[in-house]
Amino acid sequence: MENTKNKLTYKLGSDIEINRLGYGAMQLTGSGVFGEVKDRENAKKVLLAAVESGVNFIDTAEAYGPQFNESLIAEALYPYKKDLIIATKGGFRRPGPGKWVVDGDPKFIKENIEGSLKRLKTDTIDLWQLHRIDPKVPVEETLAPVAEAVKAGKIRYVGLSEVSIAQIEKASKVLPIVSVQNLYNLGDRQWDEVVDFTARNGMAFIPWFPLASGPEKLADKISNIARNHDATVAQIALAWLLKRSGNILLIPGTSSLKHLQENLKAADIDLTDEEFTSLSRH
């Protein structure tokens, strides 16, 4: 397990410099990640505040809303700052609140890409991620329209989500993969091997649900370390991820301006090697 000093930027692909503390926009939707966000003006303020605070990596998806989230980002932030990277995803149908149906049909994927370009008001999606691999459709077929969009200049880079090393290797035969977004946090480390694999292979690793701080037995330990740094438990959970591996990009989401600023301050926390090791043991 790599234990890295906090270097706070990461180069995505060969040329996009990203601040490792980004923002995940999923919470800026209705209940069950469905429908319009309750307070649109507040949501726009949070997005603007994130960018003003130095965030230059925002993660969204066609499925958030669905579609409402991408349109909201464009409404709040377009015309985009020069160095702002907006990553989106495709491959989920949303029949209702809390319902997610994987669909890797190439026609649906193509619709997702074209729709995202329109809603985000952009000619090129910097990072397009396959939200899930559909077990019913060969990944080569699912990624065919993605490869076409890359050739046409509509997508710059491609990532995957919730995948194993074998799946990353298979997809990489179709087109270059620059990032992997899997469930990962201090308390759920099932993808440790994928974190290390992506680090070795020059890919970013983007943990979703990064703020789960760990099992109850870790609570006291985290609280003590948080007190030592005059920090919150959430900040320590994020600081641990930043130190875990230099290719980790964080996208904690919140609809609260206060929590946004708290999350971003996690970049200032430099855990000691002893603290990191202690948190890593459970």
UniProtKB/TrEMBL annotation:
Record InterPro entries: AKR (IPR020471), Aldo-Keto_reductase (IPR050791), NAD(P)_OxRdtase_dom_sf (IPR036812), NADP_OxRdtase_dom (IPR023210)
Entry keyword annotation includes Oxidoreductase: yes
GO MF terms, alphabetically ordered: pyridoxine 4-dehydrogenase (NADP+) activity
Keyword vocabulary terms for this entry: Oxidoreductase
Record-annotated NADP-dependent oxidoreductase domain positions: 20-280
Catalytic activity, EC: 1.1.1.65
Domain of life assignment: Bacteria
Glycoprotein listed as a keyword: no
Example of a GO cellular component annotation carried by this entry: cytoplasm
UniProt protein name: Pyridoxine 4-dehydrogenase
Organism: Dyadobacter helix
